[in-house]
């Protein structure tokens, strides 16, 4: 139960911090809002944004894909990201590269690499899965071929749309980087003119973006919004590494698009808080898809296609391997039409638990975006009504099953097989077991391990 209290408090805390700070900054806030509102006069809905030099982003992304395909790197055991040596070698062939002389940095310090790594997973061009030796690697999906068939403009739109609508801002940036900080940076860019230089304002809530939030500026540079002037020699993450940002016309107009027509698609839970506090009126079109907004970036109707939805057959029998450790696991067969509530019940039976606490499933282990049981009363997907097939899972894809939010029993769930040839089971079936089930009240997964 504590998890929900913390999550709810987190949302309340974000809103209170945002409002309390901005109440002291009325002059700054209204200055920025007036600027961005005045920029809405630019007819972004009628005039296509002129193309800038997007080649570096596309070239680097394709080099990233080529590196993954050729080198097939093993991901690190704990964080499941690229190792230091792989990051160093990949960095050497990129245009958006980090200035380094040896492989001594983790992936998160290579801003372009970390961004591209997140984008291929968020878009499901790749998934994380175990190889035949149990090592975690990136495996391509059928979506990659669809991406590679796009033209340059379409690839750029797909990457920017994925970033804005699926990138996990709230995990990558902690709570000190609330939505107003991001908004204000984009608002400054949107209200700028060609040749303007954006500098840190110590009195603005966005000042953290020049130090701990510097990755966001590097993301903007990756997407060709403008150029960065860096500060070298920072010894801790709390020191500034960004001196200035010089937006170009391309970045200015895309920032306007993001803060007006595309703001409703922003991948942040606190967008409604922002809109309410800033009193921003956003006209939404429920029949309009995000792609319909983002494809207007380029003129002459050059963007017609995007990455197709998965071609995998949603039907069949799904075999999940549910593990507590390497020596304690169960394999369970379910039909495509069974729900995650059914999977939960099968896991409880397989491990001889009492089914007496709340639970949730997290795709890829991301605990900010879960499928919760109905009794948790959590916004989002509900386990008892979300079918296995509806998630378009790939073979090898993994989930975290969390049972009992107090003791926190954590089970690794891997989709081991999708079989379209055999009859689907009427109810979940435990087909294979290894290891003795632990006592449910022994103190949780941590003590059991």
UniProtKB/TrEMBL annotation:
Pfam families: PRiA4_ORF3. InterPro entries: MM3350-like_sf, Plasmid_pRiA4b_Orf3-like. It comes from the Bacteria. Residues 318-448 form the Plasmid pRiA4b Orf3-like domain. This is Plasmid pRiA4b Orf3-like domain-containing protein.
């Amino acid at each position: 139960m504590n998890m929900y209290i913390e999550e709810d408090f987190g949302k309340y805390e974000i809103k209170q911090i945002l409002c309390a700070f901005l109440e002291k900054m009325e002059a700054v806030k209204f200055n920025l809002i007036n600027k961005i509102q005045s920029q809405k006069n630019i007819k972004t809905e009628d005039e296509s944004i002129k193309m800038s030099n997007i080649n570096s982003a596309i070239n680097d992304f394709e080099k990233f894909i080529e590196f993954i395909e050729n080198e097939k790197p093993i991901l690190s055991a704990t964080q499941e990201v690229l190792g230091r040596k792989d990051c160093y070698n990949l960095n050497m062939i990129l245009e958006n590269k980090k200035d380094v002389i040896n492989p001594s940095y983790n992936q998160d310090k290579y801003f372009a690499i970390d961004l591209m790594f997140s984008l291929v997973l968020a878009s499901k061009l790749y998934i994380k899965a175990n190889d035949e030796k149990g090592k975690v690697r990136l495996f391509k999906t059928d979506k990659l071929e669809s991406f590679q068939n796009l033209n340059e403009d379409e690839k750029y739109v797909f990457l920017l749309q994925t970033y804005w609508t699926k990138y996990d801002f709230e995990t990558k940036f902690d709570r000190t980087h609330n939505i107003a900080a991001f908004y204000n940076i984009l608002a400054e860019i949107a209200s700028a003119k060609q040749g303007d230089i954006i500098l840190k304002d110590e009195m603005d809530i966005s000042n953290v973006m020049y130090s701990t939030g510097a990755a966001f500026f590097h993301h903007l540079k990756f997407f060709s919004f403008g150029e960065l002037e860096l500060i070298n020699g920072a010894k801790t993450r709390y020191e500034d590494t960004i001196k200035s940002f010089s937006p170009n016309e391309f970045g200015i107009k895309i920032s306007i698009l993001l803060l007006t027509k595309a703001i409703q698609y922003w991948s942040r839970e606190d967008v409604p808080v922002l809109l309410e506090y800033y009193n921003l009126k956003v006209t939404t079109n429920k029949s309009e898809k995000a792609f319909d907004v983002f494809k207007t970036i380029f003129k002459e109707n050059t963007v017609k296609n995007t990455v197709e939805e998965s071609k995998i057959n949603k039907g069949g029998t799904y075999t999940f391997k549910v593990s507590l450790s390497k020596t304690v696991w169960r394999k369970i067969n379910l039909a495509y039409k069974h729900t995650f509530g059914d999977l939960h019940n099968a896991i409880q039976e397989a491990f001889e638990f009492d089914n007496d606490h709340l639970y949730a499933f997290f795709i890829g282990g991301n605990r900010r975006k879960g499928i919760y049981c109905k009794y948790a009363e959590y916004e989002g997907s509900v386990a008892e009504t979300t079918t296995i097939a509806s998630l378009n899972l790939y073979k090898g894809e993994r989930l975290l099953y969390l049972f009992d939010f107090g003791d926190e029993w954590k089970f690794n769930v891997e989709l081991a097989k999708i079989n379209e040839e055999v009859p689907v089971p009427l109810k979940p079936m435990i087909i294979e077991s290894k290891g003795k089930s632990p006592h449910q009240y022994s103190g949780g997964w941590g003590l059991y391990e």
